[in-house]
Amino acid sequence: MTDRLDDLLPPVEYITDAYRGADKLKEKRVLITGGDSGIGRAVALHMARERARVAILYHSDEDSAREAREGIEAEGAEALVLQGNTADSASCTEAVESVVARWGGIDVLVNNAGMQKAYGSQSEISDADWQAHFDVNMNGIFYTTRAALEHMREGGSIINTTSVNAFVGNDALVPYTATKGAIVAYTRALALELLDRGIRVNQVAPGPVATEIQLAFKDYDEDMLKDMSSPMGRIGQPRELGPAYVFLACQDSSFVTGQTLHVNGGMIANG
């Protein structure tokens, strides 16, 4: 499955035939924010192949949401597609309640929705832009998690999407990087809070990946987009992230909580 984003990025690969499902998430009820495209869609398809029931929350791209639904259903999985805005608390609660109404609860929550915008200096960052980054990237995680925890039981898993930028910094993405650092701290603290409930909380820190979010660089500095790479000499693919989320969602990671999986082509070594 491929999708051309832009001539400056390689075709997007969400999942391949080489990934073999093994019923690792059979009948699990999954909610993925930002699940219509990019990493979120890859996660949705991989979890569907593991026989989960998959709900995705998307913001506004109806075509992308339709394609994601078709992909989930092509895997033989039940799909629930919800429109909403993670920056809005009520919208997050409504999404959770829709999943619960359909399936009776939530076993896996993937907080993946995000935005980024590039800036040349602090003076270019407006109050509204700064707030928007935190509303979507961080507040949305809190809103959705708080609502979902009312319906999660022992054995549940919460997986947050942070970024390599939280660990190495990025001078062109200061607001985005700040939110990703906040996600790291939230993940660690929440993991400790939920130990007694038997709910695990972890995060994935992607490096540069061929997704729509990278097009934020197109109007800022096109050369940065052209040169985006990793120590492996290339940009990553969403399909290379999906299995990491499956691992953290299933019982293969039953002794893992409060941790970060770095999937970044070697940008972080032993971090």
State the share of residues found in helices, binned by percent. Answer: 25-40%
Q: How many separate domains? A: 1
Radius of gyration: 17 Å
Predict the CATH topology. Rossmann fold
The separation of the N and C termini measures 32 Å
Q: State the CATH superfamily name.
A: NAD(P)-binding Rossmann-like Domain
Pfam families: adh_short_C2 (PF13561)
Organism: Salipiger profundus
Family: Belongs to the short-chain dehydrogenases/reductases (SDR) family.
Domain Ketoreductase: 28-198
Provide a descriptive summary of the structure in words:
The mean pLDDT is about 90. The chain has about 270 residues and is an alpha/beta fold. Strand 6, helix 4 and strand 7 form a beta-alpha-beta unit. Helices cover about 35% and strands about 15% of the residues. The strands form 2 sheets. A 7-stranded parallel beta sheet has the order 5-4-3-6-7-8-9, with helices on both faces. The longest helix has 22 residues. The protein has a single domain, classed as Rossmann fold, CATH 3.40.50.720. It contains 8 helices and 9 strands. Helix 1 runs parallel beside helix 2, helix 3 runs parallel beside helix 4 and helix 4 runs parallel beside helix 6. This is Ketoreductase domain-containing protein. Keywords: Oxidoreductase. GO terms for molecular function: oxidoreductase activity, acting on CH-OH group of donors. Belongs to the short-chain dehydrogenases/reductases (SDR) family. Pfam families: adh_short_C2 (PF13561).
